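Internal ticket #5521
Category: modeling
Description: The requester needs a full-assembly model to guide mutagenesis choices. All entity lines are attached below as received. Residue total reported by intake: 891.
Assigned to: D.W.
Attached entities:
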Amino acid sequence: MIRLFANANYDFIKWRRYAYGLTALIIIPGLVLLAVKGLNYSIEFTGGTFIQIETRQPVQTAELRADLDAAGIPGAEIQSFGSDTSYSIRARLGAHATTPGGGTEETVAAVGRALDQKLGHDNYRIEKREAVGPKVGKELQGKALLAIFFSFFVTLAYLAYRFEWRFGLAAVLATFHDILTTIAFIRYTNLEVSLVVVGAVLTMVGYSLNDTIIIFDRVRENLRKFRRTNLYEILNLSINETLPRSILTHGTTMAATLALVIFGGEVIRPFALVMTFAIFTGTFSSIYIAAPVLLLIEKRWPGQDARGARAYAPREPMVTPVPAPAPSGGSGSSRSKAAV
Amino acid sequence: MRSIRGRLIFIFLLLGASIAALIPRNVTQRTQDPQTGRMRDTSVRQVPINLGLDLQGGIHLALEVDQSKGAVADCADAIQRAQRVVRTRVDEFGTTEPVVQIVGQCRLVVELAGEKDPARAVSIVQRTAFLEFRITDMKNQFRDALPGIDRALRVAGVKAPSGAQVSAVTQLFGADTSKKGADTTKKKSATPAPDTAESNAPGALSALLFQGGLPGEFLVPDEQVARAESLLARPEVTAAIPRGFDLKWGTESESRQARLYRPLYVVEDKPIITGEELTKAAAKRDQLNNHSVVVFDLTRRGSRKFCDETGRHVHDYMAIILDNRVQGQPPIINDQICGTGQIDLQNKALTEAQDLALVLRAGALPAPLQIVEERTIGPSLGADSIHDGIKAGIVGVALVILIMVGYYRLSGALAVASLTLYLLLTLAGLSVFGFTLTLPGLAGLVLSVGIAVDANVLIFERIREELQHGKTVRLAVDEGFTHAMSAIIDSNVSTALTAFILYLVGTGPVQGFAITLIIGIIASMITAIFVVRTFYMIWLRRRPDMQTLSV
């Protein structure tokens, strides 16, 4: 029988300051970059035209670009899309990348003419064509923001209902941290932010919160079980107890998202990448943000039994039940790492 | 014991129902005939899951009233008129179930699955509506010409389908006709039964046509519409149609004696009036007899013309034609109408009157539409997406199975067995509730497989802990399930909540993702908690004295 991290007893909370530093190292440059360069929004949000073509012969992107410039659509982005016979052309509204008429329909027509001239009408095929007017783009921006705020609010309400407010606040701060790191990740990788990616961010919120809830659920249980242990120990104990579950669940989810990254195709890849990152940041924040923040909150505003206030008191030996030898006999004991 | 049997029965019912919901069945598809260029309905077997446009290819259009050439006061009404017009044109699209939907206040969304040519779709949608009133073939000139048409077709080598009736025009609804005849006190032509003796073979065209309730109305069985259409387009037939008449199809099929018939009208080729001359149209309920009526006003020029024409055509039937389609049953002209007219729909529902008023307004004030969003996905791209999605799904599921069985052994195998049921349940859920599977939805399905085992992992870890604490196998299993429950519910509810918000706020593909996730969560709760529990119960009953558990 394989047992990963069974009876682990790492002092996770001890490393919290390093964890803060690490996460700041990710978030702060990301946010600075964000402020300077902004995000790479898809035409769904900016309005504009996206055309994906499949050509018979490989074409040089530089040549295509020159032809589109000549056709009066300067600044259109041309990218190879998976193979050298597959290209995407993006012309955003607002940038210089539209025809003088400014309408998306005109842009579509102009791109079509340029391609006909360059490649010949029968030598390419339009696989996908999207044209979004400025109004719809604005609406979608609004909706996406609304979705993020709403989900935040609703999960907050749910946490308030299920947990005491101290736990809820810690979980929400951890989730907020995840949103920041994910945005930083999207900025670093220059992923195109489409509605689907926003969907991935929201799913990430649910997933990360889920992870925090599992740990907090155990914390709540252990608080009831070990009346005399301080919160510091309880948090460590709970994280360690749920560690095998975390490894397993993140493992299976990671298997699914990696399969999507590798095999799922170009369209779904940004979504899968964000979800893969979400697994890392969600796991990290549940352990290193949610739990220590709960400790801080309990210290500042102690709960009824004020165990949080004693959290930094000298540690007493851990009062954990001594495990009976596992029936199957193979328990790899890491008891040697027991609390000092 | 009984509870295990009950549980097993429930599981098998669930399994059976899911499989039943996913058995491939015949679906009608509308395809373009490569030779004639007409639309043809064909039947295809496929798994009954709605695929989003991004998976099957197609066109999504969002339109708004074009206000660039002058503001439109009531855009909600304008978009309703536009919707009515686009609905009458759905036959021209290459799709069986086009979506023509008003979204929000003033936006029309048209979704055409399988349609490939965006330029064509856009031109169909944006074409200006044309409304006209035409008198039907009151003297049955077309019917009298039918034997000649049949002969011409026979000469051209077109045979009637075997088993067709011998009569030229079958009076299918004889009783109905006579009743209608009584209504129209002074029917112009006493319709004698046509002489059928001379045609000894069934006519190719007349075998498809049944005399309708009023002069110039024929009914064609739905399944014969395509054939009738192609016959009517032949040069021999167009040449033989009596001079001064056109044939126009009705919009909706009507059901008579449990069969669907599409009405076909023979109308004069000149309209007595067109939509330009209409100024207003509104539905209301007549206070005197409680009939649903539509009241319409005409322009000054229009009312002069209409006055003349209706004067000449009292007791004739007037077909209301929008974009070449006859709308509803042609009403009878009871009297000369000048200025303001009223169409009496008798005992029909007020909604029908409202619909007719909408048709009249649509013809009177065509709403110019502007495209605010267009998405076209080629069919091969959709097929590629499905292919990639399935490949990723298989790899993902295989990895999950490997991890679960490798780590939890026999218990893992139980979880994997329940995972199969989970996948079936999720897909069946999509099928039964008519939700649409989109590309992000497919990704959500793959992702949810990874997440779905979480409930099992929580339970198994808990059982391991309980076993470690020296509990017996039976007790450990019981406690494992009970203790893991609150964590499972909490975590699933939080995911479901975010997915629900995503559904409320998102657009098509993203909504598909949210739906898949929500159904997946519900299915995973059922399988992880209920099904795996049952497996354990059976296992423990078989080996009650089990000392170790493969977990």
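Resolution: model delivered.
Comment from assignee: Chain A touches chain B through 83 residues (CB under 8 Å).
Ticket closed.
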